[in-house]
Structure formats: structure tokens, C-alpha cells
Design brief:
Arc Repressor Mutant, subunit A; 10 helices; 74% helix; Homeodomain-like_sf; DNA-binding
């Protein structure tokens, strides 16, 4: 009896399909629940067994890296594009708004941007390249006299942490609240002309978010 030569190819195809299903399911789950979502819930969303998930992604870090590599690349590209602007301050403002917008688009990525994944080499390389481009932008914006002299690169991380908290707490009004926070921070960072602020969220929308957050944290 001749061996089934198509079987190894079919197995490889099935494995790749499972991998893509897991990544897409994890992207949806992380967007909705953040990085605290369990591997079991991701396996259920992907329609695979937990053993299959761990065969494809032995660690949570490997799964997170696969899910958010594209988003981290967009972050890197945004930093490089901002560095090409003739006005360093315009580039600075553009990048801050873009990276905070990326956080708003995905709750999981909001957390990824404020965490370190040393073993995820591609993720960390993109992060380091973005940080280097942004650091250069800071120096140029200060030289223009548009950015406060005491602004430090680490202040961006503080802003991202604050923005992640706002996005998690404000629920229905998350986008508006995030834009308001970013507008306030850009105004605080600027020298000279004040930046126009986005509209504040409606009080009722913020209140609904506060109530939901309190219920979600109850034991």
C-alpha cells in the first residue's frame, strides 16, 4: 500500500489554518476584554481545544506578539512619518494623537503599549525604533521652541498609562474622554500658542462608564 503523500501537506495546512483562527479570535477577545483574557476563552472563541492553542503558541507572550505585531508596526511607522514633518512640533503632536488613537482602537493594544515583552523580539524592535524616532522628534521640537524643555521621553509612557486607564474606565465615552485627555496633555507640553481642546464628553456618558466600572470591580 502506497503512503498517503498528501497527508503531511494537509496536516501543515490544517495547522496554519488553526494558527490564523487563534490569532483572529485572540484579536477579538483582547480588543473586548484586554490582556487579562484567559487562554481558555481564546481557544473557545477560535473553536479549537486548549491543547491545540498551546501547540501553536506555547506561551501567552508568543500569542500576544503574533496578535499585535501589525499594530506595533503601525506605531513604528507613525513615529517615523512624524519625524519627516517639516515642523517638529506638528510631528510630535501628530504622533501623540496617533499612538493614543491606536490605544483607543483596541483595549488589548492599549495595554501592550505600556508593557515590556522582552522575549517578543519583533515587538520590542518595533517599539525601540518608534521610541528612538520619537526621542529625536523631542529634541527637534525643543530646538524650535515649541516643546517644554523639561519634557522627557518617559512622559509619553506616563501619558499612555493614563490614556489606557481612561479608555478602560470611560466605556461609552472612551473615545471622547481619550481625545480630551490628549488635548489637555498637548496643551501642557506646548510652549507658546495653546492647542485647541476637543469637546469634553457629555456628563451622562461619563457617569454611565463610572457606574459600569464600579459594577465590574465588585466582588
Amino acid at each position: 500500500m502506497e503512503p498517503d503523500r498528501k497527508r503531511p501537506r494537509r496536516l501543515r495546512c490544517d495547522a496554519e489554518q488553526n494558527r490564523e483562527r487563534i490569532i483572529e479570535a485572540a484579536r477579538r477577545v483582547y480588543e473586548r476584554e484586554g490582556l487579562s483574557a484567559s487562554m481558555a476563552s481564546i481557544a473557545r472563541a477560535a473553536g479549537v481545544g486548549i491543547a491545540t492553542l498551546f501547540r501553536r503558541f506555547p506561551t501567552r507572550t508568543e500569542l500576544i506578539a503574533a496578535v499585535f505585531e501589525d499594530a506595533m508596526e503601525r506605531n513604528r511607522a507613525a513615529a517615523l512619518a512624524a519625524g519627516e514633518r517639516a515642523s517638529a512640533w506638528d510631528g510630535f503632536r501628530e504622533y501623540v494623537e496617533t499612538v493614543c488613537g491606536l490605544q483607543a482602537d483596541n483595549r488589548g493594544f492599549a495595554e501592550v503599549l505600556t508593557m515590556n515583552f522582552g522575549s517578543a523580539k519583533v515587538l520590542e524592535r518595533h517599539r525601540q525604533e518608534a521610541f528612538a524616532a520619537f526621542t529625536d522628534l523631542i529634541g527637534r521640537a525643543k530646538a524650535e521652541g515649541r516643546l517644554r524643555e523639561d519634557f522627557a521621553p518617559e512622559d509619553l509612557l506616563i501619558l499612555l498609562m493614563a490614556n489606557a486607564g481612561v479608555l478602560a474606565a470611560a466605556t461609552d465615552a472612551a473615545g471622547e474622554a481619550s481625545r480630551r485627555l490628549v488635548g489637555q496633555m498637548l496643551r501642557a507640553f506646548a510652549v507658546g500658542a495653546e492647542e485647541a481642546l476637543p469637546e469634553a464628553p457629555a456628563p451622562k456618558r461619563l457617569l454611565r462608564g463610572m457606574v459600569r466600572g464600579r459594577r465590574g470591580s465588585a466582588c
